[in-house]
Amino acid sequence: MLTYAWLVIVLLLMILMGYAAGRRQGIQAGRRIGKAEANIVLREESIRSGHCKTCDRIYE
Hints:
The structure is a single chain. The chain is built from one helix and no strands. It is an all-alpha fold. The protein starts with a helix and ends in an 11-residue tail after the last helix.
């Protein structure tokens, strides 16, 4: 019976470690995508409004 307890503990630890690693990778990928997309969104908003949000230049 003690062997099953250890097996369950090891299995739960492996699942927890896999979850933690996957969560960390997901957060890093999300930040990478967010940084890349932020530039595109800023440019799109500047073009639509005719006003650059970075340098306060007005486009005609």
